[in-house]
Amino acid sequence: MSMAPTRKKEALRSAPCLALIGDMVGSRELLPSRRPRYKKGSENFIQYLNKKYAKDILAKFVITLGDEFQGLLLSATPVPDLMWDIDQRFSDRDLRVGVGSGS
Question: Where does 5-94 show beta strands of DSSP type E?
Fold first, then answer.
């Protein structure tokens, strides 16, 4: 195994990046019978984001708490398109989205 990929990963990890976190509004109000449908929809949505924005992602989007997801982006460039996709493709419930920058 070459050492170059490791150094590259280390350089990326110390460089500034963006964290994008989404949280479903009112998820506690969901009826237990509807939770599996929303969970599956969320999982499909996260897979879609990871595939579409693969070249822009430092750490893939994952579901962190039942109704929350997060991922790390290499730059702010894809944020407008991501926000559009969130608005248009995740229509089951409203989402609150936060973006932070740091290393």
Answer: 17-24, 57-65, 68-73
> Are 70 and 21 a contacting pair, CB within 8 Å?
yes
For the stretch 17-62, pLDDT in tens is: 999 998 877 767 766 776 667 778 888 989 999 999 999 999 999 9
DSSP lists the bridge partners of residue 99 as 20
Alpha carbons 103 and 80: distance in angstroms, whole number: 21
How long a stretch of residues is the chain? 103
